[in-house]
Design brief:
It contains eight helices and eleven strands. The chain is an alpha+beta fold. It is globular, with a radius of gyration of 18 Å. The two termini are 16 Å apart.
């Protein structure tokens, strides 16, 4: 087990969640939590992550020249491997511990991070479930979605189909116009509540890997900046990839991991373990 140490104290301050919040997540597959991060912490994150996105972004096409996926956001992944300042943010124990408590596991391991910057005029993010892309053996996975600014509806905050992790049909769809069309219809027919709310400054959300979610277009004149970390149970094992995307993820985010064994590659450190408390 490779426990990360030496983090700045501010990121190791804990945030207590209640049994009611854990029960809400277990029932709905997502939760929004207010005041997890302070305005000062968000300002720091905004400055650090924005600098790295601007440095690492390679997108040259205009919005009009891109497909639906390309219009949805600028996507920069595993930034922690390229920036010590981002590594300190991604490895912070506060968020990793909340993730463990919501998943009801003894510890969390990093799958990967990603910045999702939706440009002014950027398009919608179609309905999808993240775990379609992941070669992971169980559903003990969770993503924290961190808006780096107050995010009103016009900026395209994350939307959820509550309890939709129960839906099997549509899990085989990658993010696309097809997933938007088919899942929009299927989620409505099955009466899963569609949650669309703004995010306050300091508010974050957590959603499970098989929960269907989307985001609207950015109709504001400002960049919608979001940082995400994807966590998994620290005992997560690799499964045999079931599609080309999962094979790509294995090679990119879990190099050297073996099918049937705990994913313990250098890119997948344990970020929180209950044994440390």
């Amino acid at each position: 087990m490779n426990i990360i140490t030496g983090l700045a104290p501010k990121w190791n301050e804990t945030y207590s969640i209640s049994h009611e919040q854990i029960d809400f997540f277990k029932k709905n597959g997502f939760i929004k939590i207010k005041n997890v991060l302070t305005p000062e912490e968000l300002q720091y994150m905004n400055e650090v992550i924005t600098r790295e996105v601007e440095r690492l972004n390679t997108e040259q096409k205009s919005l009009q020249e891109r497909d639906t996926y390309g219009k949805a956001f600028l996507q920069i992944m595993n930034i922690w491997t390229k920036s010590d300042a981002v590594k300190e943010i991604v490895f912070n124990k506060r968020l990793a511990k909340i993730a463990a408590e919501l998943m009801q596991v003894s510890g969390t391991r990093l799958y990967h991070d990603q910045a999702l910057f939706k440009e002014p005029g950027g398009g919608h993010t179609p309905w999808h479930a993240d775990q379609f892309y992941w070669p992971l053996e169980t559903d003990r996975t969770i993503t924290v979605w961190i808006p780096l600014q107050e995010t009103p509806l016009e900026m395209g905050p994350l939307e959820f189909a509550a309890q939709s992790y129960q839906l099997i049909a549509g899990r085989e769809l990658m993010i696309s116009d097809e997933s938007q069309e088919k899942l929009e219809r299927n989620l409505r027919i099955n009466n899963f509540p569609h949650i669309v709310e703004p995010f306050e400054l300091g508010e974050v959300s957590f959603h499970s890997g098989w929960l269907f979610h989307r985001a609207g277009a950015n109709k504001s004149g400002e960049m919608r900046k979001v940082m995400t970390m994807i966590y998994m149970d620290k005992e997560m094992k690799l499964k045999k990839p079931e599609n080309e995307n999962q094979m790509n993820d294995l090679n990119q985010w879990c190099p050297g991991a073996e099918v049937g064994a705990v994913i313990n590659s250098p890119l997948n450190p344990v970020l929180y373990s209950r044994d440390e408390d």
